[in-house]
Amino acid sequence: MRKLRMPTMAATIIAGIIPAAAQDKTIGLVVARTGDPVFAMMECGARKAAKEEGFEITVSGPAEWNAQQQIPVLRAMIAKKPNAIVIDPTDSVALQEPLREALDAGIKVVTLDSELGGNVGIPHIGTDGVEGGREAARQLAKLIGEEGTVLVVGVAPGIAITDQRHQGFMEVMKTYPNITVLDKQFAGDSPDKVAAAIKGALAAHPDLAGIHADATLIGEFTGATLRNLGRADIPAVTFDASPTEVDWLKQGYLDVLLPFNPSELGYLGVKNAGQQLEGRSVEPLVLKGYTPVTRDNLDTPAAQSTIYTFDCK
Predict the structure, then answer these.
(1) Quick one: what percent of the chain has pLDDT higher than 70?
(2) Those residues with Cβ within 8 angstroms of residue 127's Cβ, 6 or more apart along the chain or in another chain
(3) H or E element: which one contains 213?
(4) Which of 13, 131, 144, 280 is most buried (most C-beta within 10 Å)?
(5) What's the angle, vertex CA 279, arms to CA 25 and CA 106, rounded to 5?
(6) Which distant-in-sequence residues (6+ apart) come within 8 Å of 188 by Cβ?
(7) 210: nearest Cα among 238, 244, 251, 171
């Protein structure tokens, strides 16, 4: 096991081995946020693939999930003139122009996790966010007995993967006539904003039945807020399975985690980039994910294998 020097980040393998002619290529991984176990795992997978293929890899990203912070990081990566860039875009629109700049510079590009809009022609590797949102809705509806008022807290609008999750969540919730979904609240990366959203919902709806958090930090901050309020009685469903989320799950302040496999995304992203450098055509990939982790199954090998870590195994 190798410990990352910096916690910078946080299926079926694409067929094909890149021949010796493709060696000594440089690849840049631009994550959506540093210090996040999602992207630590993504980095681990990318480094594993780069090592297998003999590629030199550089990893960077913004400190917050913020397009205006990620764009200069991306442009700095473009300036290094790598052969390829693998990126998790923080905004489906704002990242279009700088990624076109990368393509115009002859750099191969792959997007991971959150899709880019605008039909830019960049291959994407991700999970089915809409189905993930559907599963979140099914899990929360079951927890609250298919009735009551629920709150949804998210990072920001314009992030393709979380927008897709919300689409799927609302699609399923509309099938439950006795569930009311409040307007989605956006909190960025701020624990104070998550706490304010939850406290505001409780002030207006003292009988709040449940909470859905759409990303890692939102889930972590939701667990912390419910602990601070002493409200383990309010069911909460979130995405990912960071160590902090797992702790809140154990303590009863989160009830369902819906993880995917960021390491696999990073691994396949570098493999995909290598195929492009070979001149081979590539197709988008949609990977399976979002298997529910609960207190009842947490100790099973299957659930344990989905927990995120800052360590490369």
Answers:
(1) 92
(2) 113, 161, 260, 286, 287, 288, 289, 290
(3) strand 210-213
(4) 144
(5) 60
(6) 64, 65, 66, 155, 156
(7) 238
β-pairing verdict for 210-213 and 148-154 = parallel
| Of 9-13, 37-41, 111-115, 126-130, minimum mean pLDDT range | 9-13
Q: Cα separation of 254 and 259, whole Å?
A: 13
Q: Are 43 and 86 in contact (CB under 8 A)?
A: no
Q: Could you give phi then psi for residue 308, rounded to 5 degrees?
A: -75, 160
**pTM here?**
0.87
Closest CA to 294 of 219, 237, 227: 237
Tokens of 256: 């369902």
Residue pair 224/191 in contact (Cβ under 8 Å)? The answer is: yes
Distance CA 286, CA 174 (A): 26
Position 199 scores a pLDDT of 98
Q: Are 221 and 191 in contact (CB under 8 A)?
A: yes
